[in-house]
Amino acid sequence: MMTQVYTRMAATPKRAARSKRPLDRMLDVSLFRALGDPTRVRLLACLIKCGRACGVGELAACCSVDLSVVSRHLAMLARAGLIKGEKKGREMRYAPLGGDLAARLRELAAEIDACGAACEPGCCEGACEKK
Amino acid sequence: MMTQVYTRMAATPKRAARSKRPLDRMLDVSLFRALGDPTRVRLLACLIKCGRACGVGELAACCSVDLSVVSRHLAMLARAGLIKGEKKGREMRYAPLGGDLAARLRELAAEIDACGAACEPGCCEGACEKK
DNA sequence: CTCATACTTGCATGATGACACAAGTGTACA
DNA sequence: TGTACACTTGTGTCATCATGCAAGTATGAG
Known about the structure:
Two copies of one chain form a homodimer. The first copy, chain A, is mainly alpha-helical. In chain A, a hairpin with a 2-residue loop joins strand 2 and strand 3. In chain A, 37% of the residues are buried. The radius of gyration of chain A is 20 Å and the shape is elongated. Chain A has seven helices and three strands, in the order H-H-H-H-E-H-H-E-E-H. Chain A binds a DNA duplex through helix 6.
């Protein structure tokens, strides 16, 4: 089912900046910042590949930094909605939210494609010179 | 067509870190770093929403930082494969590579899902406690 | 109550990065 | 050849961040 709304594409970057689109919300800087550190990505990959909730100490064993650093990184990943922390007794268990991330990435991909398709040859008063 | 290969899921994060998967390559830190700055995201969004190649000065008009800063940001986005620069006379034209980005995001989403599906209940010597 | 376990938080430090301004490079045009 | 235009690159500054170590908190066991 196509619920596509064809919007005239912005003729200039300045106009593009003003025209609000779902893309602006989906290009979430805080999400990408969370994924922009090697240690954090390693932790997230471990959790996804492991497929279960893991303790902080357990996760610290898979990267070379201090346990306190791992603790902070996991807290940040949780704040970004990439993992979920739950306290079990004296242990903290972090579980991957891979499904949520995959869904967000797919939504973003769809919106990018939708933006690219919004402009047809000849539109935008000739300002659009797609080849 | 399912070409899914069922791999035993890593029982511990440490084992997970050792077991190489396409996920490790797809979780590209340099890509996410490029997307982890508000000015860069704004420039990229402008280009995608505009749908055509734009000059540096034109793009600088849509954000509040100096032209030199915009120039550097665009160079970085190009290095990350998010946009493509081409010199036209004395003008530099940067074009969005939205399709490439969308494809990368979709690949990553698929791999995340594949990792999550690799483990079946009862596998991993009982170490996998998915609920 | 005491102690060990499992984290979290405070703090100092070194590295990275975003920025503005100034100077340099390359191209078109007169 | 000179000048304007469109960027790019050099440099210094300020803020943020990743890290290690030390101290603090919370929970379970004895």
